[in-house]
Design brief:
hydrolase activity, NUDIX domain-containing protein, 5 helices, three-stranded antiparallel beta sheet, hydrolase, NUDIX_hydrolase_CS
Length: 165
């Protein structure tokens, strides 16, 4: 078994007024192409929500999103900068207007490994065969649209990788 470095991360699932979610396309040697919301690793002494807000600001330039409750937590493996990593992530629901990230943020995308961005409508998200972080993201967001946010963050546990085809 591969020895993995532990890492904690947090992300914001930003929904526009019509229910579309903002996601970024990444590529990983272990899991391949996948869509994930803005976010990233916690710095020393930083809380999950503070990290999610900081990373979102760095990746989008947005400082005016409204943050709601934590939707879910999960753990997964991937390779970060050539290092096998086991990442524990918390996803927070958030809302904001539909817009493009600020140019200054987009200028860092190549360095950050962000290949593309997209606002996914609920219908497109539900019909897509793309890979998402977490893998059941379309179902989680559909549940939020039907029932509202959960009273407590949903614990998804560890999700093993599906080999890259």
């Amino acid at each position: 078994m591969t020895e993995r470095v532990a890492r904690r991360a947090a992300r914001l699932l930003i929904l526009d007024p019509d229910g579309s979610v903002f996601l970024q396309l990444h590529d990983d040697v272990e899991i391949g192409l996948h869509w994930a919301p803005p976010g990233g690793g916690l710095e020393d002494g930083e809380g999950e929500l503070a990290a999610a807000l900081r990373e979102t600001r760095e990746e989008t330039g947005w400082t005016d999103v409204t943050v709601g409750p934590a939707l879910c937590r999960w753990e997964h493996d991937y390779t970060r900068d050539g290092v096998p990593t086991r990442q524990s992530e918390t996803y927070f629901l958030a809302s904001g207007p539909r817009r493009d990230p600020e140019q200054e943020a987009r200028d860092t995308y190549a360095e950050e490994g962000i290949l593309a961005i997209r606002w996914w409508t609920p219908g497109a998200l539900g019909e897509s065969r793309a890979s998402f972080w977490p893998p059941n993201l379309p179902a989680l967001l559909a549940s939020v649209r039907r029932q509202g946010p959960p009273a407590e963050a949903i614990e998804l546990g560890y999700t093993p990788n599906t080999p890259v085809a």
